[in-house]
């Protein structure tokens, strides 16, 4: 019986892997356990990336396809598309997972179009289910839809590979297992016939202050914070807890805080150990971004606020009183 392959694209910049790639390898292992006779394969494009290939194996890949060419050290969409389409045609994976990053979103669409297969973008959940028409095991891909008011589960019963992009921060990566062994397959893809369509000029790094996505503690503020000054207190609390601040879209739209701090469907998906929602009502579009948090604490003056439906600990009260009291207590410790 032919092995079923789950491909995961390992995205990297300056020899650093985007954490979503490790999260996807972790998830792919879980899916492989439900899909008979299957393996997880990483795809790494670039040169001098042997360390990344080895790490992919130690994090759960059975094999790594290493498309070795220094041109791939820099992402150029149609060059990546050519290489990846070649590799997919050669190995016929059953499933192909890509991080829903800026690059991944673009590339996945380009690859799916060339392969004439389906793509579910921006997934927040993946599972293996039985196709009720054929009984075969297929990938169920879940993502928010209708402006975040519904969660849709989508399958791709006919075309292969079944492709999904997945939001960073949703899945859990596996710890490195130094003893794990696997195989690295080096592939050479010819690009010389490819017309040069894009010329690379320079990289301008985006200045970002927020380390929100992977912070262990997030103190998040909504419309109830009342203005930009309110976020100063939230920052103080976040600092005391070794965390970061976040915000609802309403607070961002009001201009109280920059959009890099927005959590939710159109912001970042987070899964901290502790998420403290201050003056946030708990709209579904906010909840989809925080529901994987280990502990959710909600502070809201309205006892009927929907945020209390998902909170592990609820504090009914005025955040302008509760937060300074928490800060004072923490300072005494
Ligand atoms: P509100 O709903 O106005 O709630 C404010 C809360 O603060 C209330 O519950 C109130 O009781 C409480 N409060 C007021 N004063 C105090 C006080 N002194 N002490 C304690 N509590 C107080 N939203 C997101 O957050 N993230 C997204 O990514 C996102 N994406 C969206 C995408 C689409 C397509 C759409 C249509 C909407 C999206 N939204 C998103 C918006 C979302 O629907 C809500 O409008 C938004 O989350 C509300 O923000 P909020 O809870 O801060 O404000």
TrEMBL record:
Binding site for FAD: 248-249, 262-266, 279-286, 300
GO molecular function terms noted in the UniProt entry: electron transfer activity; flavin adenine dinucleotide binding
Key words of the record: Electron transport, FAD, Flavoprotein, Transport
Cofactor remark from the record: Binds 1 FAD per dimer.
SMART domains found in the cross-reference section: ETF
Domain Electron transfer flavoprotein alpha/beta-subunit N-terminal: 6-204
GO biological process, one term: fatty acid beta-oxidation using acyl-CoA dehydrogenase
Pfam families per UniProt: ETF, ETF_alpha
Cofactor: FAD
UniProt-listed InterPro entries: DHS-like_NAD/FAD-binding_dom, ETF_a/b_N, ETF_a/FixB, ETF_alpha_N, ETF_asu_C, ETF_asu_C_CS, Rossmann-like_a/b/a_fold
Similarity comment: Belongs to the ETF alpha-subunit/FixB family.
Protein name per Swiss-Prot or TrEMBL: Electron transfer flavoprotein alpha subunit apoprotein
Organism expressing this protein natively: Thermosipho atlanticus DSM 15807
Lineage per the UniProt record: Bacteria, Thermotogati, Thermotogota, Thermotogae, Thermotogales
């Amino acid at each position: 019986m032919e092995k079923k392959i789950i491909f995961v694209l390992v995205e990297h910049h300056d020899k650093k892997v985007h954490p979503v790639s490790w999260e996807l390898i972790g998830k792919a292992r879980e899916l492989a356990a439900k899909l008979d006779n299957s393996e997880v394969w990483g795809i790494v494009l670039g040169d001098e990336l042997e360390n990344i290939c080895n790490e992919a194996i130690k994090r759960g890949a059975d094999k790594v396809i290493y498309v070795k060419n220094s041109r791939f050290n820099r992402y150029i969409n149609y060059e990546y598309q050519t290489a990846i389409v070649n590799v997919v045609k050669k190995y016929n994976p059953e499933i192909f997972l890509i991080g829903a990053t800026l690059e991944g979103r673009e590339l996945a669409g380009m690859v799916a179009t060339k392969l004439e297969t389906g793509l579910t973008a921006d997934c927040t959940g993946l599972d293996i289910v039985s196709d009720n028409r054929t009984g075969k095991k297929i990938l169920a891909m879940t993502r928010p839809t209708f402006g975040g008011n519904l969660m849709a589960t989508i399958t791709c019963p006919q075309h292969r590979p079944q492709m999904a992009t997945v939001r960073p921060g949703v899945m859990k990566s596996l710890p490195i297992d130094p003893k794990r062994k696997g195989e690295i397959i080096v592939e050479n893809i010819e690009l010389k016939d490819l017309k040069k369509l894009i010329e690379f000029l320079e990289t301008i790094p985006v200045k970002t202050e927020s380390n929100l996505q992977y912070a262990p503690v997030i103190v998040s503020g909504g419309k109830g914070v009342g203005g930009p000054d309110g976020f100063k207190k939230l920052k103080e609390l976040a600092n005391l807890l070794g965390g970061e601040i976040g915000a609802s879209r309403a607070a961002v739209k009001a201009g109280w805080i920059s959009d890099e701090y927005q959590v939710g469907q159109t912001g970042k998906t987070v899964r901290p150990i502790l998420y403290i929602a201050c003056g946030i009502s708990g709209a579904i579009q906010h909840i989809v971004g925080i529901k994987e948090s280990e502990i959710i604490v909600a502070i809201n003056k309205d006892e009927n606020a929907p945020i209390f439906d998902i909170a592990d600990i609820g504090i009914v009260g005025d955040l302008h009183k509760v937060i300074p009291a928490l800060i004072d207590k923490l300072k005494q410790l």
